[in-house]
Amino acid sequence: MSIDIKHIAKLSRLRIEDEKLEKFEKDMENIVAMVDKLPEISDELTLDASNPMKLREDKAVPNKFTRDELIANAPKVQAGCLVVPKTVE
């Protein structure tokens, strides 16, 4: 498997020197190979054989709270919307 480290570096906006590209490529290939060897996870996790863990089933609960109940806990509300500090200029 060949991994294009230059392309990955460009996408992640990293600057990697040309002399280090081959090392990073080999390291990334080793990581991918290691992940490929990981076993599949079943519904039962057996970290402790005497006490297996069961994954819970996700259950969506629609309309558990009304909009008024949710915004009642907000520190500041304006026109029915939450007011938050500006994070981007």
Short description:
This protein has 3 helices and 4 strands; from the N terminus they run ααββαββ.
List keywords for this structure.
alpha+beta; single chain; 4 strands; flat; two-stranded antiparallel ribbon; 89 residues
Estimated share of beta-strand residues: 5-15%
Numbering strands along the chain, what is their spatial order in the largest sheet?
Answer: 1-2
Q: Termini separation (Å)? A: 42 Å
Proportion of helical residues = 25-40%
Derived from helix and strand composition plus strand pairing, the structural class reads alpha+beta
- Report the strand count: 4
DSSP helix count?
3
Question: Average pLDDT across residues?
Answer: 86
Which sheet architecture does the biggest sheet show? Answer: 2 strands, antiparallel
Gross morphology:
flat
Succession of helices and strands: HHEEHEE
Radius of gyration, whole Å: 24 Å
Structure description:
The chain is an alpha+beta fold and 89 residues long. It is built from three helices and four strands. A two-stranded antiparallel ribbon has the order 1-2. Strands 3-4 form a two-stranded antiparallel ribbon. A hairpin with a 7-residue loop joins β1 and β2 (53-54). 1% of the residues are buried. The model has no long low-confidence stretch (mean pLDDT 86).
